[in-house]
């Protein structure tokens, strides 16, 4: 059975519209298994500010002190994930929330503790917990947290988490939801871009800012077996499809 991985933002109301759930239902009716990975940066920042914990960003990554890590865990697992699972359940879908502690789901290592604190990169994904949920015809809702082999929790990037999970489950498609409909060139939204063309668009400064790490994660996923990656602002639209080989559509 083919699998579709969808990364959504932490602000559920932005992504989880009626059309979103209709698309999920259609995919399931066609025999696809759905896996959701969620973010939560907006709420983490909001909670840190409320608790007077400094918010620091270096190289596009949130510096994660011990305090910030506790807030990140609390917000992702205690606030964002239950909100999303409840919304899915209200629309008739069975869901189970998963995180790094579920059967060693997401393994990682520190990037640079002195500079970034407990920010990690994913080294391995063990999909047994995901498969167990899918076998029950439930949708796994996964928080972007990792864990070292010594049991240290890590703050990991949600896009990268979705890409690594898509690789681990041999997903046919990965949807990375963002705030724009795709990749734009000369005022036009591109329908399809290959890995080679992504590199060219980066050189031409067509792809800039936060889209760069998103596409780099996408390209890694394609190189590791994922068939196609969609950059879009809603799953009912294909957005820009990133593929391993091909030409501009």
From TrEMBL:
Family annotation (Gene3D superfamilies): Acetylglutamate kinase-like
Its Gene Ontology molecular function terms? acetylglutamate kinase activity; ATP binding
Please provide, in alphabetical order, the Gene Ontology terms of the cellular component aspect for this entry.
Answer: cytoplasm
The places in or outside the cell where this protein is found are: Cytoplasm
Q: Per the database record, which ranges form the Aspartate/glutamate/uridylate kinase domain?
A: 3-233
Q: What is its main location?
A: cytoplasm
Residues that coordinate or bind substrate: 40-41, 62, 155
Q: Which SUPFAM superfamilies match?
A: Carbamate kinase-like
**Keyword terms:** Amino-acid biosynthesis, Arginine biosynthesis, ATP-binding, Cytoplasm, Kinase, Nucleotide-binding, Transferase
Q: Which domain of life is it from?
A: Bacteria
GO biological-process terms attached to the record: L-arginine biosynthetic process via ornithine
Q: Which reaction does it catalyse?
A: N-acetyl-L-glutamate + ATP = N-acetyl-L-glutamyl 5-phosphate + ADP
Q: Where is this site: Transition state stabilizer?
A: 7, 214
The role this protein plays is: Catalyzes the ATP-dependent phosphorylation of N-acetyl-L-glutamate.
Stated family: Belongs to the acetylglutamate kinase family. ArgB subfamily.
Question: What is the name attached to this protein's record?
Answer: Acetylglutamate kinase
Q: Which gene encodes it?
A: argB
């Amino acid at each position: 059975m083919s699998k579709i991985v969808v990364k959504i933002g932490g602000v559920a109301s932005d992504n989880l519209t009626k059309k979103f759930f209709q698309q999920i239902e259609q995919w399931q009716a066609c025999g696809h298994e759905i896996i959701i990975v969620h973010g939560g940066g907006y709420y983490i920042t909001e909670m840190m500010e409320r608790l007077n914990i400094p918010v620091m960003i270096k190289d596009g990554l949130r510096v994660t002190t011990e305090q910030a890590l506790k807030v990140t865990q609390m917000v992702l697992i205690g606030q964002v994930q239950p909100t999303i699972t409840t919304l899915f359940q209200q629309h008739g879908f069975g869901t189970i929330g998963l995180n790094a502690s579920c059967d060693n789901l997401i393994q990682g290592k520190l990037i640079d503790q002195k500079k970034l604190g407990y920010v990690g990169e994913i080294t391995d994904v063990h999909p047994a917990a995901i498969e167990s949920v899918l076998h029950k015809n439930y949708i796994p809702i996964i928080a972007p947290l990792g864990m070292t082999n010594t049991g240290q929790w890590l703050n990991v990037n949600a896009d990268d988490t979705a890409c690594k999970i898509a690789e681990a489950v041999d997903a046919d498609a990965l949807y990375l939801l963002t705030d724009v409909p795709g990749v734009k060139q000369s005022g036009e939204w591109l329908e399809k871009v290959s890995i080679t063309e992504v590199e060219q668009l980066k050189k031409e400064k067509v792809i800039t800012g936060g889209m760069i790490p998103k596409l780099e994660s996408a390209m890694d996923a394609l190189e590791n077996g994922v068939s196609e990656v969609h950059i879009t602002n809603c799953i009912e639209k294909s957005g820009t499809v990133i593929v391993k080989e091909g030409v501009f559509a």
